[in-house]
Each structure stands twice: as structure tokens, then as C-alpha cells.
Amino acid sequence: MSLPQRVRLVEVGPRDGLQNESHPVSVSDKLQLVQDLTDAGVSYIEAGSFVSPKWVPQMAGSAELFAGIQRKDGVIYAALAPNLRGFEDALAAGVKEIAVFAAASESFSQRNINCSISESLDRFLPIMEAARLHGISVRGYVSCVLGCPYEGDIAPKQVAAVANELFAMGCYEVSLGDTIGTGTPGATRTLFDVVAGQIPRGKLAGHFHDTYGQALANIYASLLEGIQVFDSSVAGLGGCPYAKGATGNVASEDVVYLLQGLGIETGIDLDKLITAGQRISDILGRANGSRVAKARLSA
């Protein structure tokens, strides 16, 4: 399969990235990050999460955050809303697109959200109905698609079953997440080939963590399978609190550099993206997780 001419990146740094950082981040700093990403040409930014701050302290203030975003035409500012209360809060904050998530692993589902996969999917039904009534788009995530910290390998057909449930209930796109970063290119190609037997490839996305250093290779393997949407996190922010040893999401800067080298358009200014990543890294007092950024900034 030939490589696509254009790829859409879903920037998850402000949500999936920051929620797993130990350093507290103010709403004003989050707003600066969202503005920096917007200025860099990012067209999809997952900016916050409407969950209880008791469980995810870093996502406190998401309503204030969305109220302060200087929205740019053509840019989607989305939020995670895992339950009906979260959806209602997101709606009140003016969010136009939300995300929901399920796991491909029963053990991970139980330890992450204290319910079975089936129960988690049932919880989404009222959210999907409310979203339809209010014209809100819903994107779905499936975690642990290439491995689980408790069960090990996950069968592609199990991933396909969960992804298909999300797609059938109304998620316009389903992102398959290698939560613990153990996937390899061969397994990635097999996964997308199996899942694409139930869901069109144009409705699938890839979400890769770089624990074993395979994220960029897995993205390339996904491109060969016709996948044209990828989640990434500026400066490689984040990880997974429920997956021991899991490092952050693949760095957006590294993905853009890879795609540019392949002649694939993203609409993103790499230099401005590097500036955005370094600014938030400085605020967090952490090393920049992007190899491209570190190389460019030290040159």
C-alpha cells in the first residue's frame, strides 16, 4: 500500500500528556501550551478532561481552560469525557468534540476504571445518545491493543471486537493505543489488518508509546497499512499511571520530522512545535522527551 500524501496528527499533550506529569500545571500555563500548539499549525488538540479532580488532579480547571482558549477556525479543541457527568460538564464548557475510552484487556479495564470491558461500553450508551442530541462528535480510544501489563499479549480479534463496539455505537474514529509501548512493526501491521476487517482504515488511528523505542517504527508500519491519523504528545509528555514502566507518548516533534522526511504533509511548523514543547518542558522542570527537539536545540 502506498504512503498517504497527508497525515492528521491528534495532539494529546495537554490532556494525556499533562495528566500523567507530577509537576502541577496552572490553567494559564495550559492555555499557553494550547495557544503555542495552535500557532504551530496543529489542527486537533485534546485540551482537557472532564473527570473528577480527585482521580486526575492535573485535569482540574478544564472548564476554565476551555473558557479561555482563543479558538482558531478549523482547529478542533477536544476533551475526554468518560461518563455522562463529564459529558454534561464538557457541553456546558462549550466543547464540540469529546473522547471516550475502553480497554482491549479485561484486567486493565478492571484495574483502570473498576469495571469489565462490557460494563465500560454500556456506560457510553447514554453519552453517545446525548452527543447525538447535541451534535457533539465522539472519538473512541482502545487501550492495550499490543500488550497489557497484566495479561501480556492481546489477541488482535479482541481489539477488533472492542473497536467495533465503539464504532457501531457512534464513534466516528477509533484510535488504537499501544499503552505500554511493547508493540513491534510486525504486530502493528497484523493488528490493523485484522481490525480493518471490521472498520474502514480511514476510520482508524494509531496511538503509540515509546517504552521499547518502537513508536516511530510502528507509525511507519501503520502508514504501510493505510492509516493516516496518529496521536502524539508534544515533547513526549506523559505516560500511563496504570502501566508500570510505561514511558510517554511518542513525541509530536519526532513524528512530524519522520513524516516530513517521507514527503507527507501535516500542516505543522516543526520549529514552532519545538518551541512549544521546550516551553512546557521548562515549566514542568523536566527534560524534553523529543529527540528531534533536543538535537535541534543543541545544534
UniProtKB/TrEMBL annotation:
Span of domain Pyruvate carboxyltransferase: 7-274
EC number: 4.1.3.4
GO biological process annotation, one example: L-leucine catabolic process
Pathway: Metabolic intermediate metabolism; (S)-3-hydroxy-3-methylglutaryl-CoA degradation; acetoacetate from (S)-3-hydroxy-3-methylglutaryl-CoA: step 1/1
Top class in the EC scheme: lyase
Keywords, in A-Z order: Lyase, Metal-binding
Pfam families membership: HMGL-like
Keyword Ligase attributed: no
Reactions that this protein is recorded to catalyse: (3S)-3-hydroxy-3-methylglutaryl-CoA = acetoacetate + acetyl-CoA
GO MF terms held by the record: hydroxymethylglutaryl-CoA lyase activity; metal ion binding
UniProt xrefs under InterPro entries: Aldolase_TIM, HMG_CoA_lyase_AS, HMGL, PYR_CT
Domain of life from the UniProt record: Bacteria
Recorded family membership: Belongs to the HMG-CoA lyase family.
PANTHER family: HYDROXYMETHYLGLUTARYL-COA LYASE
Name assigned to this protein: hydroxymethylglutaryl-CoA lyase
Organism: Pseudomonas graminis
